[in-house]
Amino acid sequence: MAELAIGDIAVEALTETQARAELARLAELLAGANLAYHTEDAPEISDAAYDALKRRNAAIEARFPELKREDSPSEQVGAPLAEGFAKVRHAVRMMSLGNAFDAEEVRDFDARIRRYLGLADDAPLAFTAEPKIDGLSLSLRYEGGVLVQAATRGDGAEGENVTANARTIADIPERLDGAPEVLEVRGEVYMSHADFAALNTRQEAQGGKRFANPRNAAAGSLRQLDAEITRSRPLKFFAYAWGALSAPLAETQMGAIERLHALGFETNPLTVLCDGPQEMLAHYARIEEQRATLGYDIDGVVYKVNDLALQARLGFRSTTPRWAIAHKFPAELAWTRLESIDIQVGRTGALSPVARLTPVTVGGVVVSNATLHNEDYIAGRDARGEVIRPDPEGHPKDIRLGDWVQVYRAGDVIPKVADVDLSKRPEDARPYTFPAICPECGSEAIREEGDAVRRCTGGLICPAQAVEKLKHFVSRAAFDIEGLGAKQVEQFYRDGWIKEPADIFTLKARYGSGMQQLKNREGWGEKSAANLFDAIDERRRIALGRVIFALGIRHVGEVVANDLARHYLRWDTLIAAVDTARPAAARHRRAEAAVEAERKAAASEDRRARIKETRDAVWADDPQVPPEARAAWDDLVGVDGIGTTVAVALVTSFGQEAERASIDRLVAHLDIQEAERPATEGSPVAGKTVVFTGSLEKMTRAEAKARAEALGAKVSGSVSKKTDIVVAGPGAGSKETKARELGVEIMDEDAWLALIGA
Ligand code: IVH
Predict the structure, then answer these.
(1) What pLDDT does 79 receive?
(2) What's the domain range around 381?
(3) DSSP character string of 324-347
(4) Which member of 68, 132, 209, 397 is catalytic?
(5) Is 600 annotated as catalytic?
């Protein structure tokens, strides 16, 4: 009988020597697959095959724990970023787009813009509509009409220098005639379906890897260290936007696109001008109809305000323009079997159900895991108890083990289980019981009123939460300590060396010398240990936004953290503001609980007014909320990008005794840098505190506030000794009087606009 290959021997049958060899083989295979997936844009094996290898590795490790390798794949989370391209800082940030998923959200987009600009419902407001190309964005810088630099988007602020590669793309002109002195053209690099198929055939014939889809192929081809490889790959480019400019291209979006076309760029022929949502939606339908025959992948339609002066007034939120939106096509679907449900515990203690599926291809990608969101979702209801998957009688269709389920994938989002086919339900299927106990630490897992998610109450005693918090703490947008990645913090946590973030900063004192030393640990040496201690020391001095993000507070992502940093500038100020606002947060919760009943009441004409009345009544009836608490609360929820949900999360987090103590211990080791106000060179109002009162006639409140903040001013809701300017419109009342009493400068809207040069 032929000898079995080692990979075919069952785990239980492996000898120790065979197990050692098999662990080495699996480590190599999985490392290769990781690298291909994360840095070469080409998954080499299916998700299912990958998972099977990982499971086999884990099973062998469980049988022979002493053979577990230092580079064990069970400890690997991802692969390092591709090295080799120089970094390029974009002169103007490369933004992403907000999304709309249905007609309603497109109409909301139009309404939001009108509200922001103070335009009447019937005032003309035109938009361009064009396909959203599913490729990767590229910024091309021309100086004196000559291409001098090409950079990928990267994180939006900094990308990779791929100039040599971009020069090999036929659609990218090397020289331009009659262009502004400085012109950054932005657009999408993509690969056509025909070219993608031919490339994969060629790759296969040459024993190279196949690409999963045209986007991966385009990304992999552009990011080649050898530009000659890029040259051999048929890449294309559509121009649709711009960055830095020494002179405007046109007065409208459409005009600018036409100008780019005249300069020699390919622009998408399906770009049209629409006079409002109705025409936008009609064009969306036309593009969707042609989608299959276009010959390249698109994943939606992008709408942009046509008037560039209005675009400038609308400006940007942290990472997306207010004047554009992507209307995405519905997601791709497939049916498969639900094999099991795993519960993962996240850093905020959330118990997340994950569906393990019989692998299935959805839109060209193999899917074997998908999210099931939360227990209500499994039961077929939303957080308010409404049925989200009705059967023909209107009862909710729940999801059970063994069910035939529909998997849904949209763009880059995590696939989810969307629907269930009751006709294929196994007879013995029983409703799924969501665990009430944390599978990681055994603590009770509870659902708070109004929370869709069941959470482990173990806090930092729950190893899953503690480790996830630590991993988040050292992640790229947080402390990003070189040599201290997810894998290392997990090991340090397991060995009790690091239990909370503050411990990272005492690691050297505890393990730099003495009996137990880092340099003597397996996998570490004198040099790597010294490097780690240095890298940690370097991060003691750290930007405020990073610290706020690193704390892993619910609802406080990178964008919110930076918004908070820009608003409060200093750690002490932020903490003091949140502490001061605490009594008002409690009041907010009570008021919202009271209005919940109103909200549930059947829709009626005066429901809105009743909700407002109820809310006002709860706020008014309390002598215990000091005015400074109310002011701090109003200021907090008024920060651009922050609402009551974030505010409540901050107050809760900073108010929990154990968590606060842990934060305080951390902060004691840090030198937190004061945040910079937005670039406000030459701004006459940078650093000034401004209050708008009365009605404004040339702009809305939201626009006035956003523009003042963009110029480095702090906008406040109440007048105090700290106020520098009060902009008073008609009907200004007590705030203007108070400003007069305090001798604060008062001006009208026109004077304000003149001051800021608008
Ligand atoms: S406009 C400031 N137009 O979509 C707005 N983007 O999800 C800049 N994309 O990063 C983007 N087709 O890579 C724009 N016609 C189009 C697009 C498009 C594809 C990509 C682009 C962007 C991403 C945002």
Answers:
(1) 34
(2) 332-464
(3) EEEEEPPPEEEEEEEEEEEEEE-T
(4) 132
(5) no
